[in-house]
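Standup notes
- DV: blocked on the single-chain target, sequence here:
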Amino acid sequence: MKKYLLIVALVCFGLNAGAQIIVRPQAYCSGLSDLDEAHKLGNFVFGDSITKYLWDLKLIETDKKGYIKAAVKDYELGFFRLGGHAPFLVHLDSKDYLISSLYCFFDDMDEKRAKEYLEEVYGKPTTTDNNEPGWFGQRFYILTQRIEGVFCVSFHYINK
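- DV (later): unblocked, structure below
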């Protein structure tokens, strides 16, 4: 009887622990106005203290002035899909310990298709100084660029 109760307890605990890992909200944003209003991508809220999210991050660089650069752990990468592509790396930056920027890096991304997808979601882009498209909201701006052959989409929070 004791063995039976032990097995039941282990099975119940295992299912409960698994459910906590699986149940996560999918990142969804239907435009710049949603991003401006929610201040959120994936599980990360821009303007929040980065220290709230250290469990989901791998620290890369820090300094005493509140600058922290961290990579999002692998199990979080699916929240930052662009079309059907998940990034291979996502970096968060903070200023004064507050989340200020998020960079999504895609290695085999078709740049033209990515920009078309961003235009579908965020509307018609504005051309920036380096002749790349950019999307500018009231609290955010989004930029695309190639960094050493890798396609990057960056989200920057304007803390007013």
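- Follow-up: Residues 1-27 have pLDDT under 50 and may be disordered.
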